[in-house]
Amino acid sequence: MTGEFALILAAVVVGVATYIQGITGVGFGMVAMPLLVLIDPGAVPGPVIIAGIFASVPFLIAGWRQVAWRELAILLPGVVIGSLVAAIVISLVASNTLRAFVGLLLVVVGGAAVFSKSRAPGPVAFTSAGFATGFIGTVAGVHSAPLAILYRYDTLAKVRPTAAALFVAAYILSLAGLAAIAPSQLGSPTIVLAMIPGVLVGLFAASGRFARPAGGIMRPIILMLCILAGLRLIASAMGGGILAAMAI
Question: Do residues 116 and 110 make contact, with C-beta atoms less than 8 angstroms apart?
Fold first, then answer.
């Protein structure tokens, strides 16, 4: 795949991911990250995290009054710890191994959530989701998966700005951790710049005539995205391992 074509595909993927986040409240990382790994491994995690900031800030601004600030106060400490732990682990463990582990975790947790009947998560659930958001997001750029499970029963009006607020904080923490411990994972500015037009198109589609909020089907959609993201992570990790073995 040529460099120019890969950049165009990356922009398209990011545009679709931004649109999905607009109609479900979450999903940017779950859609963008696994596909970007296949298109250009250099787009993960740094560039996709930066693109995620541009995709999340407008949703945060638009829904500022609907943000669940008390819940964010519980989530954020976990995000900080998870991001720091992930940055350290990245410097010690092979990336394919980490991605396979995270992918398996998403499949198991997402599958379990399908059968879960709990509609009122407590402080432990919020703290755990915060840690998972920081850890998984820093390792693989999939910050949205834990929140998709946590907020699967809530309304779009609440989920979209609340998740966007947490994503912005988590993205910044993840970038700081990568810059301090694994700067090579930040990626190339060229990839980031190529993604921005896609983000803008996705934002326009999610806020204009093409916007179709998921409504009552939001829960199955976001759980499906979570499981698919896990499967794609596992597939990309296995593919990377096979390619490495062939190179040897």
Answer: no
What is the reported pTM? 0.81
Cα–Cα distance, 224 to 213 (Å, whole number): 16
Per-residue confidence in pLDDT tens, the chain, 248 aa: 558 899 999 999 999 999 989 988 888 988 887 788 778 888 888 899 899 999 999 999 999 999 999 999 999 999 999 988 988 888 888 778 887 888 888 888 778 777 766 666 888 889 999 998 888 877 776 778 788 888 878 888 899 999 999 999 988 988 888 888 878 888 889 999 999 999 999 999 988 755 555 555 666 777 787 788 788 778 877 875 443 333 33
Per-residue DSSP letters for 194-228? HHHHHHHHHHHHHHSTT----GGGHHHHHHHHHHH
